[in-house]
Amino acid sequence: MNTGRGCYTFVMHAEDGRVVVYTDGACRGNPGPGGWAWAVAVPGGRYASGAEARTTNQRMEITAVLEALRALSADGPASIDVVSDSTYVVKCFTDRWWEGWQRRNWTNSQRKPVANRDLWEPLLALALSPSVEVTFRWVKGHSGDHWNDVVDELATRAADTGAGATG
């Protein structure tokens, strides 16, 4: 049983050079063993997953997007559309939480240190880079989306086995 929330990544190249990516993070306990995954949603497409022995679900959600952007930005797409069921990740960008965090020297609206700053900083650098346009959309998790299920399985398997996979 997956106790973590899902964040799904599927990647598809559209004719206009846009890449759509679904990402997922999973965690067995919070904190506990965790996994992250992203996948290119075309037959035979690329995918990757990874694991951490002791982590949180939020860290795995962020890591899934970070690793997807690291891999896909190197391919030089015109733009990347990240689709995630993690409101934590999506709202950081759609509601521009990151601007307040930076303005307040990495504290949140309650004046506490922003959790997972070590992951947010490299993610922001990639997502806000002028070399590729990155957009974020929220999708309801575990709603029957095929690619959502694919990356959920990859992330869950990584959390369960402690090992990632690539292909």
Q: What this model shows, in words?
A:
The protein is an alpha/beta fold and 167 residues long. The chain has one domain: Nucleotidyltransferase, domain 5, CATH 3.30.420. It is 35% helix and 26% strand. It is built from 5 helices and 6 strands. Strands 1, 2, 3, 4, 5 and 6 form a 6-stranded mixed sheet that branches. A hairpin with a 4-residue loop joins strand 2 and strand 3 (32-40). The protein is globular and about 45 Å long.
Sum up the structure in keywords.
single chain; alpha/beta; Nucleotidyltransferase, domain 5; six-stranded mixed beta sheet; 26% strand; disordered N terminus
> How many E-type strands?
6
Global shape: globular
Residue share in β-strands: 25-35%
The oligomeric status of these chains comes to single chain
Count of helices? 5
Secondary-structure blueprint:
Elements: E1 10-13, E2 18-27, E3 32-40, E4 47-55, H1 57-73, E5 79-84, H2 87-94, H3 97-103, H4 117-127, E6 133-138, H5 146-161
Parallel strand pairs: 1-3, 2-5, 5-6
Antiparallel strand pairs: 1-2, 2-3, 3-4
Helix pairs in contact: 1-4
